[in-house]
Amino acid sequence: MEIGPIWRAMWQSKGGYLLIGLQIAVTMAIMVNAFAIMQERASKMGRPSGIDEANTFALASVAFKPDLDYQSLIREDLEMLRNTPGVINAVVTNSFPLRQGGWSEGLHREPGVGKSVSSSAIYFVDEHGLETFGMNLVDGENFTPAQVAWDSDSDDFWPATVIITQALAEDLFPDHEGSYVGNTFWFNDDNPANIVGVVERLQAPWPTWTGVERSMLVPLIRESEFSRYVIRTEPGRRDELMPQIEEMLSASNKERIIRSVETAADARKLAYLGDSSMISILTFVIGLLTAITGLGIVGLASFSVARRKRQIGIRRALGATKTAIVRYFMIENFIVSSIGIVIGAILAVALNIFMVQAFALTPLAWYVIPIAMLILWTVGQVAVAGPARRASNVSPAIATRSS
Amino acid sequence: MLKMKNVSKVYRTDTVETHALREFSLTVDEGEFVSVTGPSGSGKTTFLNIAGLLEDLTSGTYELDGRDISKLNDKERSNVRNEKIGFIFQSFNLIPELNIFDNVDVPLRYRGFKADERKRRIEQSIEMVGLGSRLSHLPAQLSGGQQQRVAIARALAGEPRFLLADEPTGNLDTNMADSVLDLLGEINAAGTTIIMVTHELGLADRAKRNIFVRDGQVSDGAPELHLASMAAG
Amino acid sequence: MFRYYLKLGTLSIRANPILSALMVAAIAIGIGACMTIMTVRHVMSGNPIEHKNDQLYHVQVDNWNPDDPYDDPDGAPVQVTYLDAKALFDAGRAFRQTTSFKTSRVIQPEGADARPFQEESRATTADFFTMFDVPFLYGSGWDRSADETLEHVIVLSRELNEKLFGGENSVGRTLMINDESFRVTGVVDTWNPVPKYYDVNNNPFEDPAQLFLPFSVAIAGNYDNSGNTSCWKPIPDGTGREGFLASECIWIQMWVELQNESAKQDYMTFLDAYVEEQKLIGRFPRPLNNHLRNPDEWMRYNEVVDDDVDVLLGLAVLFLVVCLLNTIGLLLAKAMRSAKNTSLRRALGASKAELFKQHVIEAGMIGVAGGLFGIVMTWFGLRGIENLYADYDFIQHLVRMDWSMVMLAVALAVVSALGAALYPTWRTCNITPASYLRLQ
């Protein structure tokens, strides 16, 4: 019921109020979009990689003497690793989830070179891969030792059996119902792959890739100067075993070096550094923005109180209670904030549509808008409370003074 | 010298038209000391604002020193105010952050005088109002009468032809008021034309000529009569 | 009058210390936010080889899958095959040309207890150093003849020379790398182009190679490519390394230097003729799609600047808008507060133009202060970014402020403050002289 006269009084000096309204509107637009981005990044970071991240680490062996027998070196290394107390299992592979570097292949439902129907990350492992990565096999079986090939053994580079992720199976055979085990697809014109097992989840090495959930295990050990070992330890023993194993491998053969020792947790941190930093920056920005807008409201309200001292005194002289004066300023701020917030909501959606198009962000969730509204209303009311209280302390006697 | 002919001033809002001056005519000659009196709302302040080029007129002609004021642009009007007119206000209107020297300096700055010329004029005019020892004081450190003297010094520093005073003693006690009025008398005796708006009867007596304004027009008849009737009413 | 207005501005700022501080802070923070992101973007989008931008060209030929373009809708591959690298290099039709790829080598320092270590390396050709204006501390690159004779020569980075030879002139010394002996021909002075324009496929923001050795030696020695390899056509089984070299896999970066526009056109004609010729033997199944892109175009084509930076820049600009709206509001409030003062000045003879000057100068002072503090804020902002991204070795190169950025910060602050002052000043100038002089 008080809104009417307050609104009409505000209309008399709309310029100043419009500015605060606009400031709140732009603040709202930034806030909503920052929230949307933060939410998108947080959900990206929350995706499990499928491996036992807390207890896994990796290292690389780089041989530098020519004519080294890579096969026996790898056999010895694996034997040593698997027999180390505290190690659950170890595997030689080309990469692991979150590492941001790896191998991918286009896949075909028919033999031939034509356009591929899907693509997948490839992890070369032996029958220990499943346990080392800590994956959940939901269908079919693990590789048998006989299925694991060394790439020096055969002309046929690609083994005939694979274990794939659920997501890859669905992408490859969208119309298929029932078990995927036994289905066949092709790497290229003449390399069929028979699915022997399906795992629930195993991310590709590139978290930014849209097909990140599509990957497969291929039972092959590649012989080259470079081999990467992934080692899974018993819970809590990773940090203790890491230096120990590095030293053991370094000492076992002087014709290679051990490098790139890193935990899966390190890899996760690095892989999502852009996203986690973005979240930090945006949190900071929102905090700062809220502070500036809040301080701006405090400043302007203080001014308006100073300017209207006489008017306030007259109101008090005419019988307004202190509460009524406080309420007056609170309602005034509420009106300005509301106008700003409504314009802000429109701006926010417009900005989001633009960003979705320009930067391929995901559209914002509807509930972000009421959350931002609530925050800005609260900030406004809190900011105006101080000056409003000061206004209520203006003496009614000021009304009778003329200067 | 100051010549208003059929001057009208109308304030318009969305709904109301207020005629503050209607067909107002007045001539003031060089060296006069004119008091303008009238009841509240009679239009005397509007007259002063128009005379001082603080406001535009709606119709009629206003000549100051032979120049038709209505034809001037903002810059020319500002220059006329600056060079030919000095203002004295009821509430002194000194700038609180500036000391006495700098307050008197304000119009001289807009006049574009060189630094030494400004200094000479400021010191001279402050000396004249008897505050030579207070140059670096802030207005708040002075009494009301002293503040008004500073305001007079500011008005005089540019050696204006006209001094427009708006209730110059309204905020002063009797003693201070008397000394300010004595000062105005001296200034007038030295040749400056003074127009003083007031509603105080005693003040009007100090002037050589009294004008009575009512309903936005110069009222005919003996001023004394009107003053008496006003005092009665 | 200017000095008088400076004095009035100072007085006014002193009379309203909290309000003025709020305005300066708002501008400083807005400028700080903008300049932090702009600095990062400025470095990321820089072109370290600007002065040769119209002479260097990255070579693209489209050997990709007829049914599936390398990049939708019809983008050509961003690297070349060994077949094409070799053929185009051997043809020698450009003023200068270089083929290169990224590889890792293990250095075996002399001394019994010295441990071998791996370094990022670049296999390249003699012209690399002259084409890209690589500065040398000692010696120089190798001769073109070394490329042909498979001479085992090497160029070290300043850092690596420091590590191996204690920083002394090592030209002529030998070094064991993966059990092969190499002779040092030169040591590169500090050289860290940002972005690493000569190879944007493999992370344009990483430290440059620590050692350079001949492409031909790397091919003969079967050095692995540690950069990106992409294939569309299967390599026949059992063909090994030879099969890979003869494959349609792309993994090599090729650049040519062409001295003028007609040389460029000639080279383009040559490329087209080469591809047409290859089509006759069954390669290049796609339509003719060759490109010569200069460094600027090449970095833009590869979208070197991360999208996140643009998103942040957009938000930072909006942030500045909020800060300015804040400032406009405060200036307006201040103008209204000093309306009586303004009105008095008008009565005393100040024209609108003079008042305008007075207030613009005051706003300018706030702007300069905001800009100076904005530089400080930017510095803090950049340190913040540096800390956040501390795990990226390269981040320190992206958070450097140069003079142009400092000037820009101050200019932006002053322009912003003046822009913010326009509306309040306009309102001020329109205060009528009589309006506030009577009561109050």
Question: Mind explaining what this structure looks like?
Answer:
The complex is a heterotrimer of chains A (403), B (233) and C (440). Chain A is an alpha+beta fold and 403 residues long. Helix content of chain A is 49%, strand content 18%. Chain A folds into 2 domains: 3-46 and 273-400, no CATH class; 53-267, no CATH class. In chain A, strand 8 (184-186) and strand 9 form a beta hairpin. In chain A, helix 8 packs parallel to helix 11 (368-392). The longest helix of chain A has 38 residues, at 322-359. Chain A is elongated and about 105 Å long. Chain B has a single domain (28-43, 73-232), classed as P-loop containing nucleotide triphosphate hydrolases (Rossmann fold, 3-Layer(aba) Sandwich), CATH 3.40.50. Chain B has helices at residues 44-51, 74-84, 100-111, 115-128, 144-157, 174-189, 201-206, 223-232; strands at 2-12, 17-28, 33-37, 59-64, 67-68, 85-88, 162-166, 193-197, 209-214, 217-218. In chain B, the strands form 2 sheets. In chain B, strands 6-7-8-3-9-10 form a 6-stranded mixed sheet, sandwiched between helices. Chain B starts with a strand and ends with a helix. Chain C has 2 domains: 2-45 and 306-429, no CATH class; 50-301, no CATH class. Helices cover 50% and strands 13% of the residues of chain C. In chain C, a hairpin with a 2-residue loop joins strand 6 and strand 7 (180-188). At the B-C interface, helix 2 and helix 3 of B face helix 1, helix 12 and helix 13 of C.
Oligomer: heterotrimer
Number of helices of chain C: 15
| End-to-end Cα distance of chain A | 33 Å
Per DSSP E runs of 2 or more residues, the count of β-strands of chain C stands at 10
Mean pLDDT of chain C: 90
Question: Per the principal axes of the C-alpha atoms, what is the gross shape of chain C?
Answer: elongated
Please count the beta strands of chain A (DSSP E, at least 2 residues each): 12
Order of helices and strands of chain C: HHEHEEHEHEHEEEHHEHEHHHHHH
How would you write the strand order of the largest sheet of chain C?
A: 2-3-8-5-7-6
Total helices of chain A: the number is 11
- What is the average of the pLDDT values of chain A? 89
Alpha-beta content class of chain C: alpha+beta
Please give the largest β-sheet of chain C: 6 strands, mixed, barrel
Proportion in β-strands of chain C: 5-15%
Query: In percent terms, what proportion of residues of chain A is strand?
Result: 15-25%
How many separate domains make up the residues of chain A? 2
The string of secondary-structure elements of chain A, in order, is: HHEHEEEHEEEHEEEEHEHHHHH
